[in-house]
Amino acid sequence: MSYLRRAVIVAVSFALAGSPPAGAAEPVGRAVRIKTEVRGAAGPLAVQDAVHRDERISTSRSGLGQFVFRDGSKLAVGAGSSVVIDRFVFDDSKTVQKLTIAAAKGTFRWISGNSRHSAYRILTPAGTIGVRGTVFDFYVGGDGTTAVVLLSGAADFCGRGGCRQLTRRCDCVVAKPNGTMSDTRPVNRDTLRILGNQRALPFLSGQQRLSSGWSGSSCGLAAALEIRPDRVPNRPPVATEPETPEKPRKPRPHKPDRPDKPHKPDKPDKPDKPDKPHKPNKPDRPDRPDRPDRPDHPRGFDRPDRPDRPDRPDRPDRPG
């Protein structure tokens, strides 16, 4: 940490309190990663700069800060966030007797250190997060709405509406300052809809990436949102064979649409033919009178009896 920054912090403490209080400008941790812009009480922070008790830490809309406290506890501060290290009581055994953090707004990840679980408290506008050997994310909206998502261990959240226990990975609870509090259920896309901010949990959705050793489960939120991470590892290009260009197709002349044929009127029905008149039956022909015999006819009608023919003599047998 630069001497100039330390001098500014001491001067601010004198101006506010009038006399240097005990433990003024006491360093409680340090910055291990700074992205874009992260500010402290004396201005922008850089890697390895110390952070102090009662110091407010804020990030820009794309900022990210990761801090490690003296007992090994870790706090990640996401984009557009503000937090104050409200109380820090350190002992000689590299543990803290009390570490209280007041989150005003934004998104955070907490990883417990070597101290007793009861030594940690995180204050939000909607209630208090009790830490029990834990890794979890929490979000504070502009109206004070708070969401807590458990990633490891266990935690509890207590507000005006009672307390909720988080014991399983990806358990989530959402609470409002007026005491309204949801039941404990797995985090999902509906959680972001309830919070009214698709970027409310960027460490889970992949919108912001933390350093190695700070990451936890995404609880399936990144896959559900299909959001591309803000940092994608560079991969060498894969050699591919050049594609053979396709031959251009010959343009076909546009054929005008054929006009619709006019509708032919329906043919009128043919009139029914009149029935043919009934023909009267022909009168019966009268019987013809018998014809008289005609003696003058050479043959006549009645033939005279022919005389009997004489018997023919028997023919002699013919010699064989």
Number of E-state strands: 15
Q: Strand share of the residues?
A: 25-35%
Number of H/I helices: 4
Low-confidence parts, pLDDT < 50 over ≥5 residues? 1-23, 227-233
Tell me the overall shape. Answer: rod-shaped
The CATH topology name of the domain at 28-225 reads Jelly Rolls
Distance between the amino and carboxyl termini: 170 Å
Radius of gyration: 57 Å
Question: How confident overall, as mean pLDDT?
Answer: 79
The CATH architecture of the domain at 28-225 is: Sandwich
Question: Structural class per helix/strand content?
Answer: mainly beta
Order of helices and strands: HEEEEEEEEEEEEEEEHHH
CATH class of the domain at 28-225: Mainly Beta
How much helicity do the residues have?
Answer: under 10%
The largest sheet is: 15 strands, mixed
Report on the structure:
By secondary structure, this protein is mainly beta. It has a domain of 198 residues: Jelly Rolls. The chain is 10% helix and 32% strand. The protein has four helices and 15 strands. The chain has a 15-stranded mixed β-sheet that branches. The termini are far apart. The N terminus is likely disordered.
